[in-house]
TrEMBL record:
Its EC number is 3.2.1.4. Belongs to the glycosyl hydrolase 9 (cellulase E) family. This is Endoglucanase. Residues 2-422 form the Glycoside hydrolase family domain. GO terms for molecular function: cellulase activity. It comes from Acacia crassicarpa. The keyword Hydrolase applies. Pfam families: Glyco_hydro_9.
Length: 446
């Protein structure tokens, strides 16, 4: 299991957030690849790094690798990845130890990636899709939560159930193959996740949240993502639009500052906030959905009505732009929350490899606790983690540049992954230009 991504500033390969990050990176390329210019090749390289890894994780039928690394042992050390001497346990899913949410998210990641590579590497693309189909079947035929293997909790427990991932995976497979059975699965099961409440993972605890599952999107909850994704092919089809388009509209109304049904809060500086740590994960993933949905609205000449308030596509685009601008420095502190961008950015990022000297500077082994002086130092990190987005400021727009403040100073892949497509869009907006990736029909696999 060489390869893949660590989730954040530690050295554990948590596959649930890694798979979601891979799905979002692929979606960003599908939507905005035409705007990436010469950076498209780097996006494809990053995506292939993730999809290659998930091919390994799903190599054997009826087995899915769920995680690499024992998290408690890892979190008790502060050392470089090159020096790891903590337990590297590998945790597996099987029919006796199912994990539908993780397996279905991997299926979504592989299906989305298969569409990205369809034009440039058809052989690889078909391999990805074959794995996606097999892993989705494994997830659906062996239903159960991956919480049962013990390793993900309390870090990435799935408190929200696995049906949203199964529907999400089926929606991506339908988008990739146009096979009716996947669309039938989505329609038959979407009602099972429609609820006025949702359980969220808040710092490792299960918290019941009101406001509707349609408002949720992130590594644990795929509800809003399902509705926005599906809206692309049902927005002008009255027979199939419900509940997807009404729920996507309700999601939009839950975000707009002037909407009577707004359920998020905004700082004085204008940053969106939802409960939980690493708040920028919400700002980036939700902004991504806003841009994608705005593009679907533009194509359908649609507006969203939020009571007495109406929103056109530009309303959504402007809200997303305000979040991107805030993240990159248009905020009360003048702070860019992307490391290495602008003249003022976080210096004490909670990330092991960023804080400890490189092998070039310090070739000797650095043991489990030998990295502590670098963690406790008041000096900036020795290695600039260029491009990483950290958790972001508090809801009063303040920011504590401290490795001890994990919620604010730790970067994660699932903050960065949606942001790639966002900045590509705002670099060169092309509202009506969709990159030509994907399969025409299932026979392309043969």
């Amino acid at each position: 299991m060489v390869g893949g991504y660590y989730d954040a500033g530690d050295n554990v390969k948590f596959h649930f957030p890694m798979a979601f990050s891979t799905t979002m990176l692929a979606w960003g390329v599908l939507e905005f690849g035409n705007s990436m210019g010469s950076d498209l090749e780097h996006a494809l390289e990053a995506l292939r790094w993730g999809s290659d890894y998930f091919l390994k994780a799903t190599k054997n039928p009826n087995v899915v690798v769920a995680q690499v690394g024992e998290p408690n042992g890892d979190h008790d050390c502060w050392e470089r990845p090159e020096d790891m001497d903590t337990p590297r346990n590998t945790y597996l899913l099987s029919p006796n130890k199912p994990g539908s949410e993780l397996s279905a998210e991997i299926a979504a990641a592989l299906a989305a990636s298969s569409m990205v590579f369809a034009a440039s590497d058809s052989r690889y693309s078909k391999l990805l899709l074959r794995h996606a189909i097999r892993v989705f079947d494994f997830a659906n035929d062996n239903r159960g939560s991956y919480n049962g293997i013990g390793a993900p909790c309390p870090f990435y427990c799935d408190y929200n159930g696995y049906m949203d991932e199964l529907i999400w995976g089926a929606a991506w497979l339908y988008k990739a193959t146009k096979m009716g059975k996947y669309w039938d699965f989505v329609k038959a099961n979407i009602g099972s996740i429609e609820s006025n409440t949702v359980i969220r993972n808040i710092k490792g605890d299960a918290v019941l949240m009101s406001g509707g599952g349609f408002c949720e999107f992130g590594w644990d909850s795929k509800h809003a993502g399902i509705n926005v994704l599906v809206s692309q092919w049902v927005m002008t089809d009255p027979s199939n639009a419900s509940p997807f388009v009404p729920n996507a509209d309700a999601f939009v109304c839950s975000l707009l500052p002037n909407s009577p049904t707004k359920s998020v809060s905004y700082s004085k500086g204008g940053l969106m906030f939802k409960p939980g740590s690493s708040n920028l994960q919400h700002a980036t993933s939700i902004s991504f959905l806003l841009i994608v949905y705005a593009r679907h609205m533009q194509a359908a000449k649609k507006v969203v009505n939020c009571g007495s308030f109406s929103a056109n596509p530009n309303t959504l685009i402007n809200l997303a732009k305000s979040q991107v601008d805030y993240i990159l420095g248009n905020n009360p502190l003048g702070m860019s929350y992307m490391v290495g961008y602008s003249n003022k950015f976080p210096q004490k990022v909670h990330h092991r490899a960023s804080t400890i000297p490189s092998l070039d500077k310090h070739p000797q082994h650095i043991g489990c606790r030998d990295g502590d002086p670098y963690f406790k130092s008041n000096a900036p990190n020795l290695n600039v983690l260029t491009g990483a987005l950290v958790g972001g400021p508090a809801d009063d727009d303040s920011f504590e540049d401290s490795r001890y403040n994990v919620s604010q100073s730790e970067p994660t892949t699932y903050i960065n992954a949606p942001f790639v497509g966002l900045v590509a869009y705002f670099k060169s907006p092309q509202p009506s230009s969709f990159i030509k990736f994907g399969f025409r029909n299932f026979s392309d696999l043969e």
